[in-house]
Every structure is written in structure tokens, then in C-alpha cells.
Amino acid sequence: MKSKTLLNILSLALVAPLCIGSLGAAADEAAPAPKKEKAEKSKGSGKKKSEADDGNYISQNIPGWGNPDSAQRSLANNIMSAMKGNTPEHVAKFVESPKNRLMIAQYMLAQYDKMTPEDMANKSRKKLQDDINRLPGEIEQDKNKLKTLRGKERMAFQAAIKAKQQMLKKMEQEIKNMPWTLKELNAHRDGRTVLKQVTGNLEWMENLCFSGPCVAPGRALHIIANIAKKHPDVYKDKVVRDIATAVGIEYARYNWNFEKALDRADYYITNWKAGRLNSLFDDLPMFLRRIVCGCKGDNIAGDRISLEWALDNVHVPAERYMGSPHRLGYRLYSLYGDSIHGSNYYRPWDHIYGGNHFTKSLYVGCVCGGISHFGAFAALANGVPSLTCGEPGHCAYVLWVNGKWVPGNSVSWERGLHWQPVLNMWSAFSSLHLGSELYNKLDKDTHMSNVYRVLAHNAANTKKDKQALDYFRDATTAQPINIAVWQEYNNYLTQFKGDDMKLLCEMQDNLCYLLAPRYPEVVSEFLGAWVYPKFKNAKLPAKELMTRFHVFWDNVYKMGPERWRIEKFGRRQIELLAHQDPPNGEKIPPPDPQRALPVFNLMMGNLSSKGDYLPVVMGWGEEMAKGLGGSHAKTIADISKLLSRTGTGAMGGGDNKKVTGQLMLSAAKAKDIATFQRLGSNSSDAVEVPGDMPELPAMSGQEMLSEEGLLITSSTCGHDSPISHWGVLRTTGGRFHTDKEENPWAAVMMPKPAYVNGVVIMTTNSNHHRLGNMVVQISDDGQSWRNVSKDLGPCTQRVIKVEFPETLGRFVRILRKGGPEFFHLGGIYVFGRPAA
Questions:
Q1: Is the pLDDT assigned to residue 59 strictly greater than 90?
Q2: What is the pTM of this model?
Q3: Res 488 pLDDT > 90
Q4: What pLDDT score was predicted for residue 644?
Q5: Average pLDDT over the chain, rounded to whole?
Q6: Which of 393, 509, 601, 714 is the most exposed place for a label (fewest CB within 10 A)?
Q7: Across 297-305, average pLDDT
Q8: Which of 723, 547, 528, 692 is CA-nearest to residue 619?
Q9: What angle do CA 8, 12, 17 make, to 5 degrees?
């Protein structure tokens, strides 16, 4: 760990006392992990392998990249000659040869080069030129300000001016030498070297072409070539090569700063060689390595100074990065009263912490965005895959733990990624799961899909339309989750077939048949972004639209990896049915119920036997039905009829009250607060309110936090009234009743994390002997619990007020210790203050 300067030590001494209260129990994580939990370090450069050791295929037969179009045509001829046929049997045999797979990757490299947006290079050059024009003025202003400064502040400002001058010099050099295409790259000696090294190496090419989107490959290879100037073992060492490739692809894809790309690669190469990264990093597949090395290159949290600090100070086992931001304090206003949403929040500390995102967040303060970036980039700095994401009014993050994506600092299932590893699906969190499944290991189906993909592009390039369509169908059938092929299929229909509606409907149906059963959210995003706008422009008849909608809902069986925006997609279909543009943004206003009913009935007809979906659709439908006026009762009757029509329905039929209660239990189990609240509010007149409900005692200066949450119980039984669970969280009261069991419990999930310091328990007015030995517990995730009260002993009163020191958490549980015994209460009310 680097020694701190005297200035840093003094600054910590000044600021740390202000933050002591916010560090909490996790503050010890600021130091390296205890020995028994110490993160296993990467093996670094001691793990080098030769290409022969890897079983990798190296070819000296390199296409002539000075003319990529000619090279692509030659590759197509060689591929067709080697295939000897286009049946699945021929293709399966073809992909067994490493030489053949290399030709497929080489062909796609040329295709990606062709697909690079024409204006991308021009925009990049203009942006760079604008920065070059702007910097001299900034430097001159800084020099004038320098005259007013003294001491260490003057020294720091001088260093900043020098850094800007060096950056200007590098940018002026870069604009003279900025290749974007393979042809431009091939005109330079370094470019020819990197093209020869990369395009003759099978593993390198498959990592470049088949690990996610490959945009502007000429630019990506230019970045790799420049990384190799400082780290020539890019051409010899597998991990160094992978780091350079990951950085090159992502920084080229988003047109991020060239110098920062070189610095990002240097950070990971240097620290991997030193064995300082988490051991998980050693064997990451390229898709995950791209997420680590290329994540958000335009964000201050990813700057070198921030990453180095996180590597020094937050070095823990991979799974513990989920808790690493707990040391931070939520502070909307700084010590000086400045809002974090303004420009002055961190300014008084700029001369101390500079551009270090982590120290500013830790010692000055932050809200959800800073906390989630701390958690995500602390993991990334150590080589552990992580991403920040947006939730309604909140920022969270996700972490790769034991082969799965796990949410952190999360308040909702409704999350969209801040950075897109798979296409441009801002809302589709499940696209991250799809990308991991598809790219983490290229299986035979994916290789076959990519062969048909090449055949489709070759047919399109040679004006063989029927063959192109057939090959796109074959490519998507061979590997339905190869989402990039679906996008290219869609683009082909636009570019070459003028969005022929018959062909577009066929593609939509195939997408639903093949992909919706596993990844319904991804399909909904794809249709909403790229297919439905074409249906609208073509004014597709209502009957045809309803047929297309039916194909989607009929092929949806499970939620997929996560709960997704079912209601939003239903509203999108309703708006399309009315040939109206959906409003911009995430919030779409409730549709006219008269237009909504056909789509809603279609959804109910297809989803009534699919238990994961039924609570969501039922709650949404009851909300829409309120606007139907006199038709309200008929609509509810129609819904009930749909539910009771078949005994194999998800809830087995029954009266509406019972069905709604079962739906609320399902929503609670899924931790779906929106659906739980919607169902409860729509059925509030059916809540069984305890008799002689006493008045709630006051909790001075605190806010009741539980009312908009949900209730989860350890079990249910015939004495329970699930439709009344909503009332347990309201001041009017309700009731729940568990089965007779050991250690029964009831837990409140609040809408957001909060600092909790009190709970009021309202018992039922009978059988108090069942309610003894209660304990109040709190949790961040609903899995790991800690006691915040002592054993409350025998229950002798109707209202129990429990106060305790302020504790951060999102779940509050009342545990009835011992048993077996029933457990039942009329109200649970959590008090405290929101964490943000």
C-alpha cells in the first residue's frame, strides 16, 4: 500500500471525525480484509501460458486488410469451398475445424468494419478538435488563477496545468493519427503488425468478434496496437492480450478518450502482473473481462486515481464487495449545507481529494449514486465484474458472485443497466444474464449460428435475397440467444426488404417462439425498440396486431432471470393498438381502459395458468378496471371467470377475494412491492380489521416507513386472511396467521433502506399466550438477520412499543422464538428515517 503524504494524513484527521457516525459496523473494511477472509490474489504474470499450451490455433494465412471488401469476398469463397454443403450436418462438421472457425471470425471482422456507422469517425474527430480548441483557453485561465494561489494549493494547481498541457499535446498528435477503419489502420506499420498478430490467432479473433458487440474494429485494434507499445507482451501473454482487447473494444465502441484507454489498460496489466487483483480475474471469459476492464470509461469513478485507491483500501473476497459501500454515509447536504445535486458539494475538498471519487464519497458524503459507484468500482478495481444500474429514483449496482449477477444497494426489481454489454437495451437487466450465458462459453450451437450468420451476410452482399432470409432463419434457430443475429436479421429486413410486413411478422413470431420462453424481457425490449415502431408506421390492422401480441404472450412461461416491466409492455401494446406514440420516458400514463380491455383479456387468457405472472396482471387489471365506470363489475366478473374457467389455473379458481389473497402471497414471495400494494389498495374494503383497534403510540420525530412496503410471513394456514396482510402495515390494521411451527415470523420489506429506531407491534385481541418471546430483527437483504431488541418475554398487552439505536436496513422481522406454535398479529409499524 502506498504511504500517505503528510497532506493526506492531515486531511483524514480533519475530516474523519465528521464521518465517524456514518461508518457503522462495516467501517473495518477500509483496511485490508482480516487474514482469514483475505481475498485470494491473482497469480499474475506467473500464470503465463503459451498459445500451444492453450491448444490455440495460429495461422500465417492473413487476409489482405488493405482492401477489406476484397478480403471478405475471398474469405467467402474459401468458406463455401470448405463447407461442401449448408445442411446442419455440414455446418456441424465445418465448425469442428479451428481453421474454418478462424475464417468465420475473419469474415465477421470485415463485416463489422463495414457496419461501423459512417458518421462515428467524423463525430469523434470533431469532438477531439473541439477539445483541442478549448484547452488552450482553459490553460490560460488557470495560469491567471495560479497567480492568486500560494503554498500547497499553488503546487497542486501547477500540476493540474501541466497535466492539461500534456493532454493537449497528446490530443494534437492523436488527431493526426486516428484510424477508424481496417483500411486506414493497415496504412500504418503498427496497424499492420496488430492486424497480423490478431487476425491469425483464433482465440484472439473469437474474443474480438464473438464476446459482445464489436463496433469500429479498426479503432479497437488501433488502441490495442498503442497499448502494445508500452506492453509488448500483449503479443505473447494471454491475460495481457485479453486486457488490451477488452479495453480496445469498449473504448472504441463508445468513442471514449484514447489516452484514458491506454491508462486503463496499463492499470490492469500492471496490477495483474504484480498479483494484486482478485484471483477471479485470472480466468474471466472475455465478456466479463470487457465488463471489468472497459466499464464506463467516461466516469470519474473509473479514473486511475480512484481505482488505485480502491485496490489499496477495499481488497476483500469477491462476494464481500456487496457490502463494501456500507461504510459510507448518506448525505444529501454537505457540512456547509450544499446539496449533492449542485456543483459546490465537493468543491471545498477538491484540493485535498482531487479526482478521487472514493475518498470524496467516503469522507465528504454521497447518496445512492455515490454508494453504488463505490461498491461497483471497488469490485472492478480488484478485477471483479460489476455494473451500476438505475432503479426508480435510485442508483444500485450488480455484482458477479459465484457465477450469478446479484443486485446490491437495491430497492427494486425494476432496474436498467447504466452501461450496455449486450446491444442497446437500457431496461433489460435480463440481457446481462443472456450475455453471460451466450458469451462466457462459445458452444457448438453458437459456432453454427455464426456460420449461418456469415452465409446470410454473404448472400445479402451478393444480392441473393432468398438465401439471405433462409440463412438468417437458420442462424437464429441454431442458437436463439445469439441476440446480435436477431438484430442483424432485423436490419437486413429494413435495408434490403423495405420492412416487408409479412417478413417482419414472421421474424417477430420466430423471435417469440424461440426466445420468449427463456428471456421474455429481452424479447419485449427488442419488439418495443425495433419492431413495433415499424408496425405503427405501416398501420398494421388491429386484427393483425392482436395476432402478433398473442404469439408473444402465448410463448411466455416464466419470468426469466428477474421480474420485468410487464405492465409497461402491455401499455405499449395498447398504445400501438390505438396507433398512438407512447410518451417518452419510463412513465407511461394509464391507458384508456376501453382500449386496454382487449389486450388485458388477451394477457389474462394466456397468463392465467402461469403463476409468476398472474399477481402482476391481476393487480394491473383491477387498477385499469376502476376507470371503466359502469363496466367495472362486468370487467371484474370477466376476470374471475377467466380464473375459474379451468381447475389447472395458477390459483385453481375460487371467489375473487380468495384469489386476490393468493395473488398477494405470490407478490410477497416475489418481493414485488408494487403488485402487493396495488392488489391491497384495490381490495382495501375486503381487509379484516381487528376489533377495538387501539390508537398508535407516538414515535417522536420519526416517520412511519412500513406503510408502502409488503408483508412476508413464514407460512400461512386455513385461519389466515392473505387479503388482509396489506392492512397489517396500515394504521387501520389487518391480520395474518401462520401455521403451527417452530420459530414462526413475519417480516416487513420497506420500499427503500432506512435508518430504523423503533417498531410498534399491534397484537390481535385474543390468544396472547401464543405471542410470547418475540424478538425484533433487521436485515439488509431479507436473508441475514441481526437482533435489535432483547427477548420481549410473555405478551401481556395489546400494543408493544420497541425502541433501539438507529440501525440501517431494509427488512424488519418479528420472530416468535420457540414452538411449535401459531403466530398472528394485527399490525407491524416500522419507524425511523429514510436512508436517502
A1: no
A2: 0.79
A3: yes
A4: 43
A5: 84
A6: 393
A7: 87
A8: 723
A9: 170
List b or e across 225-259, with b for residues whose CB sees 16 or more CB atoms inside 10 angstroms. bbbbeebebbbebbbbbbbbbbbbbbbbbebbbbe
**Any idea how long the chain is?**
836
700: Cβ–Cβ under 8 A, 6 or more apart, which residues? none
Give the β-pairing of 745-763 and 786-787: unpaired
* 350 φ/ψ angles, rounded to the nearest 5 degrees: -60, -40
552 CB-near residues (< 8 Å, 6+ apart):
512, 516, 523, 524, 527
**pLDDT category of residue 153 using cuts at 50, 70 and 90:** confident
Burial 762-782 (b: 16+ CB within 10 A, else e): bbbeeeeebbbbbbbbbbbee
**H or E stretch covering 804:** strand 799-816
Task: Give the burial class of 185: count Cβ atoms within 10 A of its Cβ; 0-12 exposed, 13-18 middle, 19 or more buried.
Answer: buried
The grid coordinates listed for 766 are 385474543
Q: Which residues of 264-295 are buried (b: 16+ CB within 10 A; e: fewer)?
A: bbbbbbebbbeebbbbbbbebebbbbbbbbbb
Cα–Cα distance measured from residue 813 to residue 782, given in angstroms and rounded to the nearest whole number: 9
pLDDT at 247 over 80: yes
C-alpha 707/C-alpha 749 separation (Å) is 10
SS3 letters across 584-652: CCCCCCCCCHHHHHHHHHHHHHHHCCCCCCHHHHHHHHHHHHHHHHHHHHHHHHHHHHHHHCCCCCCCC
- DSSP-assigned letter for residue 792: -
Encode pLDDT of 155-181 as tens digits. Answer: 877 888 888 888 888 777 777 777 889
Is the model's pLDDT at 149 over the cut of 50? yes
Give dist(CA 523, CA 511) in Å, integer. 7
Biggest CA pair distance of the chain: 88
pLDDT of residue 836: 63
In whole angstroms, give the CA distance from residue 570 to residue 596.
9
Query: For residue 427, what is its C-alpha cell?
Result: 431496461
**Among 759, 757, 766, 831, residue whose Cα is nearest residue 798:** 766
- Specify the pLDDT at position 89: 94
**Among all chains, which residue has been given the C-alpha cell 497542486?**
156
653 within 8 A of 643, measured Cβ to Cβ:
yes
pLDDT tens-digit readout, 421-445:
776 666 678 899 999 999 999 999 9
Helix/strand/coil (H/E/C) assignment for every residue in 406-458: EEECCCCCCCEECCCCCCCCCCCCHHHHHHHHHHCCCCHHHHHHHHHHHHHHH
Among the ranges 235-239, 536-540, 633-637, which has the highest mean pLDDT value?
235-239
**Euclidean distance between CA atoms 785 and 777, whole angstroms:** 6
Residue 231 sits at the vertex; the CA angle it makes with 237 and 307, to the nearest 5 degrees, is 100
482 contacts 475 by C-beta, under 8 angstroms: yes
**642 vs 576, which has greater pLDDT?**
576
- CA dist 466 → 72, 455, 460, 461 (Å): 21, 12, 9, 12
Instruction: Return the number of other C-beta atoms located less than 10 Å from residue 569's C-beta.
Output: 24
Q: Which helix (H) or strand (E) holds 801?
A: strand 799-816
- Which cell numbers hold the place of 555? 410463448
Record the cell numbers describing residue 505, joined without a space. Answer: 411478422
Q: Is the pLDDT confidence value at 641 over 80?
A: no
CA dist 76 and 74 (Å) reads: 5
Query: Could you give the 3-state DSSP secondary structure of residue 749?
Result: strand
Give residue 777's pLDDT band: very low, low, confident or very high (50, 70, 90).
very high
Per-residue confidence band for 452, with pLDDT thresholds at 50, 70 and 90 = very high
**Mean pLDDT score, 271-275:** 96
Q: Please, which residues have CB within 8 angstroms of residue 718's CB and are 6 or more apart in sequence?
A: none
Range 796-803 average pLDDT? 91
- Residue 29: per-residue pLDDT: 34
Q: Which domains does the chain have, with CATH numbers?
A: 41-116+181-294 (no CATH), 430-560 (1.25.40), 590-686 (no CATH), 699-834 (2.60.120.260)
